[in-house]
Amino acid sequence: MNATNRTPGASIDIRKASKRYGKFVALRDLDLSIRPGEFMTLLGPSGSGKTTTLNLIAGFTEVSSGSLEIGGKSVLGLPSHKRNIGVVFQHYALFPHMSVGRNVAYPLTLRGIGRAERDGKVRHALEMVKMADFAHRYPNELSGGQQQRVALARALVFDPPLLLMDEPLGALDKKLREWLQLEIKRIHRELGTTFVYVTHDQEEALVLSDRIAVFNGGQVEQIGNGRELYDHPATLFVGRFIGESTVLRGKADIVGGDTVVSIAGTKIVASGKISGHAAPVILLRPERAVLHRPGTGVVDGENRLSGIVEEAIYVGSGSKYDIRLKDGTTAVVRSPLGAPEFAIGDTAEIAFRPGDVTLLADDASADITLT
Amino acid sequence: MSALPQTDNQTAGGRPARRLNLRDAGWLAAPAVLLLAAVLVYPLAIIVLRSFSEPEPGLQNYIWFFGSPVNRAVLQRTFVLSGWVTLASLICAYPYAYAMTVVGKNLRLILILCVLVPFWLSGVVRTLAWVILLQDSGVINSILRGLGLSPVKLIRTQLGVVIGMTQVLLPFMILPIYSVMKGIDTRLLQAARSLGAKPWRAFLQIYVPLSLPGVYAGAIIVFILSLGFYITPALLGGPRSTMLSSLVQNQVLSLLNWGRGGAMGVVLLVATFILLAIAAPLMRQKHTQTRREK
Amino acid sequence: MQLSSRIFLGLFCLLVAILLLAPTLVVIPMSFNSNKSLAFPPAGFSWQWYDNFFTNPEWLLSLRNSFLIATVVAILATTLGTLAAFGVTRAAARTGGLLRAILITPMVVPGVVLAIGIYAVYLDTGLVGTVAGFVFAHTMLAIPFVLIAVSASLEVFDRRLETAAASLGAGKLTVFRTVTLPLILPGVLSGALFAFITSFDEIIVALFITSPYLKTLPVQIYSSITRDADPTVAAVGTLLFLATSFIIVAGLLIGMRRGRT
Ligand SMILES: Nc1ncnc2c1ncn2[C@@H]1O[C@H](COP(=O)(O)OP(=O)(O)OP(=O)(O)O)[C@@H](O)[C@H]1O
Ligand SMILES: [Mg+2]
Fold first, then answer.
1. What are chain A's domains?
2. How many angstroms separate the CA atoms of A244 and A68, rounded?
3. Is residue A26 lining ligand 1, measured as CB closer than 6 Å?
4. pTM to 2 decimals?
5. What's the CA gap between A304 and A295, in Å, rounded?
6. Has residue C67 been placed in a domain?
7. What tens digit of pLDDT does each residue of C189-204 get?
């Protein structure tokens, strides 16, 4: 299974795909394009349609409307066993009545591959996931992490151009998860297969992916790499879902091309303005703000918001503060080591530049889905 | 950053589509249902039909059945004997099933074997064994005589029939009661005791009500099976312990009177289904029970 | 529990156990009786009733009939019952419940009522005293047992394994053959065993649809009991008891071994 004679990764094109269960719409007009060989992660809250999307690609369910192409060919109506896609499930799904070796050989046997070639491929696949010594064990004699590695070998042994994984590490503890993340990343690099990966865990998504598709309510809100999503969220939902943030709301005016929002009587300036009619809100990342004692370190053109320190947590690389503003909002600020330190109950002023915040259209549903 | 499941989830739970779906897995049951239609539904329909039409259309077979004191007595006896069998089984089964839940693993295995082994003996042979046990020179009377007691007439009496039927039906009482008792959280009893209830009181007020679904299930199964019993009463019973099944058999095979035999059969069938309809809701309580977590 | 109630419970259970086992305890010694009598305790010891069973063509023929019929019934009922179990467990919940209720009815319909109905139909269709007649009736009676055994294993079967197999390239039939069937096999086999025993032991319907040319073993036993006191019946009972015990114990041991690996 060396990189040279492998099937190249397949592209995926989903256009205007909808999936309805009775009256309930699980996916609405979903558009998603995945490049050949890409590691794409589907990230989103529970019930946002990630598994449904994966099931559509795998052929476990059919779209209600829309189109789905894999490698440039429509696969609508093609049953899953003819799609030649590897799938790794959260619950491992190893066949309990077959040894590890026979589990991995299963897809090869189905494809009528001869004994010698089969044995070789099984061995290669098991070596790739470092499970070659376990070929004679049965699944119930393996730990969760070992089972998942076997499942990965089984899903890759037949050289599928596409591998789907639905929270494959969801049932494992943190250490093991981190180690397997690296293993999966290595395997992806070695094989060049297209990987589509579903997770709840944004850190995992950031570690693994070339690009991340953020799902919300049966739609993709934004696709991009980690930096794009963090620094330039397209919607308030994405901004809040990826990383930590403080959302500042107030009455907004446009002054000279910039947006001025008054928050608890203080005017806050954010560079630029948003298009459309929705009310603008300000999204502030915790490390873009600096904490000052009242009245100190004032720089011209910087925004200042005063509040009371509600929580101060030492996090090694610095401190993390929750600051309660006058309007009741809690702002999160991260100070690096060496910055002034505050105790609970202190009054502090949050300072940040107009260009360091993101202006986004307000969207009440972003709050509801995130609570 | 966890998210609540969307509220739509609850309503989404795919309601079964109303229209006929040819790909529905239910069609796999079609061959079995067809066989059932041919060898169960159709024959029963014929019996019902004949009870109303032979020798001539009308209700005369039912009028005859309910008009005859002998038949009414047999009908009544069928119910009374079934009641006694159910009661006797319950009295034997309840403590036995309880014991099964409290003993150690090995003893439990033995107790379970004692329940299952009778099934390994052919049904007819089992009834023969009861003939051997109950006859005037049989085991029970030999023991009684050995103890210096006077022998009892058992064979061809109602008592003999009840004893034989109870043994045959006892497993059907023990197993459902046991399966419910197994799931009762005995910590509830301890809780009641810690609140000051005396052991017996706690048992009667907490444990017994929780075990009732099993009792209902067992009782209804035993009662229904008793109503239709045929072989055991026929071999162990005498003229004064005839049950309805024997009358049906007699009408059809000896007297060739399909109308009257059919009418009696229909009465038995209807009684069975009425009982089932009454009992079904009682047994369904089982699902709302508190169960012990594993 | 107090000691006194413990002792009381223990004694009571002993009595119930004796009641349960009494027939078995009586039949086995009776089969070695040296007199042609069913009086207990048996006198002397002899193998003559076993001898009689194995040399009497009437007994052997009825054994052969029962064996033949029960084998066909086991195959048919297991096939139909397994299909039905898939239907019941995988149909929409309401359909499934309804189907289950329908398919279980043979267990609650009073035997004699069913027997006269089948007898009436068989008289019209010439099925009285035929192997086919027995097979139809017994298969119908056996299906509920298969249905219960197989749907119990289907309910614990993880259907996601079927999805996994499909993703690896297995079509519907291959999935069934290589994944589903091997994993529900214990349920299917115990269903088959139940079906076999149901047919082998069935007497009420058999008494009606039997003919002098086609008797099953229970019919033969029944007529022997009603004719005279012949300990051959006890010998037959003992043989059947031993055979059943052997099959069940062997099945349990195999099941335990499979469960361990
Ligand atoms: N078979 C089904 N019938 C009805 N509704 C369904 C079905 N499958 C999924 N849904 C609904 O579709 C929506 C999307 O489900 P999906 O499984 O894709 O979510 P998800 O993003 O994978 O969530 P999670 O992170 O919790 O796994 C959910 O609201 C779910 O309740
Ligand atoms: Mg999911």
1. 12-238 (3.40.50.300), 245-368 (2.40.50.140)
2. 34
3. yes
4. 0.84
5. 10
6. yes
7. 999 999 999 999 999 9
